[in-house]
């Protein structure tokens, strides 16, 4: 499918980036994107890839969906591209449609620009609430091991990836991690372990302000057991702790439910979302209960580009498309096919595919050292490299140790295209394991 890779001109672009913006680079396949359309990515040299990254779980409604592009172009042509915090119809419509897809009781929305900004905001709101109900010492924040919430100061620390921890520059002793009870990397899934992790840090419910958790953990997707989440909800209620589900990558239909926390049957106090909210424009939101959201005066959560009218127009068109075409339903329908194909790979290679999990149209293969429960970044990387040489584009290996082959096509993918891509993955794993 692909002409000789990487193309020499792509190398020149990559070199330019390496010289000028090296910190943005990570071990991605050396493709310089030129165009994207629905489930395909193109470069300038005649290469085409089936996209199994969704631009890191962003383009749920497909790349460059015509109705979303039209909404943005119309907005640009209207002459209103930026209005700071002055009211605009687009901003009101975006807030309204986001509130309309949110659960009962969570109807207040802050529009922001990135997922990190949303989780940072949720942490700030949780602390303000904690201080209000419990005094100055109720500021503890609990995140989970191997979690990811962004790269601002507090969000980075609430995340639990080893790589992120290495870059903490201003450690806050009141932000801590409990083990994420995924059942594979952390076998112990009992809620007592959560309580013990806090006690070990010298905290109790009385001085914890908030818990922030990815609804499914990106390393997988891994869900916590339902009983664990029920106990967590009850514990938060007992101690007046704000529970935030981070839906930045899990939301907007990805898992076969509109919000991934619906799989638990438990509602949080705050939802952080971004990525799939607008299929590519920089917009994010915190959605929450009135009593928590209304603690700060109007304007105190705003920055220059939050609620930008072009981003808002994109979000409205995007959410309408997700709903009108029932793309959540498509994820739920195709999810079992994807899981079955991944399980078949694991059955052929149980030595190195330690664990497989999926929810709707997100799946992950945990690649291990042969016969051991230890991460195998090199093999994960090789599988992805072969896929890209054969026209299937996956994100660089993710997960706490770069050991996860993560699959996340746009939710507009057809059954036929999904099966075609699964065939490529099959061959790539076989060949990588054979040392090719
Ligand atoms: N939370 C989760 C679960 C994420 O996956 C991400 C981004 N990968 C973020 C927060 C941060 O979002 P952003 O990169 O837009 O700041």
From TrEMBL:
SUPFAM superfamilies: PLP-dependent transferases. Signal peptide: none annotated. InterPro entries: Aminotrans_3 (IPR005814), Class-III_PLP-dep_AT (IPR050103), PyrdxlP-dep_Trfase (IPR015424), PyrdxlP-dep_Trfase_major (IPR015421), PyrdxlP-dep_Trfase_small (IPR015422). Keywords: Aminotransferase, Pyridoxal phosphate, Transferase. GO terms for molecular function: identical protein binding; pyridoxal phosphate binding; transaminase activity. Its cofactor is pyridoxal 5'-phosphate. The keyword Transferase applies. The keyword Membrane does not apply. Belongs to the class-III pyridoxal-phosphate-dependent aminotransferase family. This is 4-aminobutyrate aminotransferase-like enzyme. It comes from Prosthecobacter vanneervenii. The lineage of its organism: Bacteria, Pseudomonadati, Verrucomicrobiota, Verrucomicrobiia, Verrucomicrobiales.
């Amino acid at each position: 499918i692909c002409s000789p890779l990487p193309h020499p001109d792509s190398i020149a672009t990559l070199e330019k980036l390496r010289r000028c913006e090296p910190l943005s680079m990570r071990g991605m396949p050396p493709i310089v994107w030129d165009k994207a359309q629905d489930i395909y990515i193109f470069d300038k040299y005649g290469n085409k890839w089936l996209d199994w990254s969704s631009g890191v779980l962003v383009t749920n409604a497909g790349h460059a969906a015509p109705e979303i592009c039209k909404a943005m172009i119309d907005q640009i042509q209207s002459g209103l591209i930026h209005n700071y915090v002055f009211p605009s119809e687009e901003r009101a419509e975006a807030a309204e449609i986001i509130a309309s897809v949110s659960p009962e009781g969570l109807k207040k929305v802050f529009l922001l620009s990135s997922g990190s900004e949303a989780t940072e905001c949720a942490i700030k709101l949780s602390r303000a609430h904690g201080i209000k109900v419990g005094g100055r010492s109720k500021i503890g924040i609990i995140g989970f091991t191997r979690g990811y919430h962004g790269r601002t100061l507090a969000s980075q620390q609430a995340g639990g990836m080893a790589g992120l921890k290495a870059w903490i520059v201003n450690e806050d002793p009141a932000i801590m991690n409990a083990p994420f009870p995924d059942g594979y990397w952390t076998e112990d899934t009992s809620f007592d372990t959560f309580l013990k992790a806090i006690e070990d840090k010298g905290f109790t419910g009385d001085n914890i302000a908030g818990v922030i958790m990815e609804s499914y953990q990106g390393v997988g997707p891994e869900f916590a057991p339902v009983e664990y989440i029920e106990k967590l909800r009850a514990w938060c209620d007992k101690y007046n702790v704000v529970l935030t589900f981070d839906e930045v990558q899990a939301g907007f239909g990805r898992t076969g439910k509109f919000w991934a926390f619906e799989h638990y049957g438990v509602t949080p106090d705050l939802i952080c979302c971004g990525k799939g909210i607008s299929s590519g424009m920089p917009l994010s939101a915190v959605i929450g209960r009135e009593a928590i959201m209304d603690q700060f005066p109007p304007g105190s959560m705003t920055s220059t580009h939050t609620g930008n009218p072009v981003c808002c127009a994109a979000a409205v068109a995007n959410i309408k498309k997700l709903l009108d075409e029932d793309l959540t339903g498509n994820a739920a329908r195709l999810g079992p096919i994807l899981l079955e194909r991944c399980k078949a790979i694991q059955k052929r290679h149980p030595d190195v595919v330690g664990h497989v999990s999926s929810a709707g149209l997100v799946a992950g293969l945990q690649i291990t050292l042969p016969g051991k429960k230890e991460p195998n970044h090199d093999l994960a990387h090789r599988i992805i490299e072969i896929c890209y040489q054969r026209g299937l584009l996956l994100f660089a290996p993710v997960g706490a140790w770069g050991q996860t082959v993560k699959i996340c096509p746009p939710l507009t993918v057809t059954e036929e295209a999904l099966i075609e891509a699964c065939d490529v993955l099959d061959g790539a794993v076989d060949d990588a394991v054979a040392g090719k």
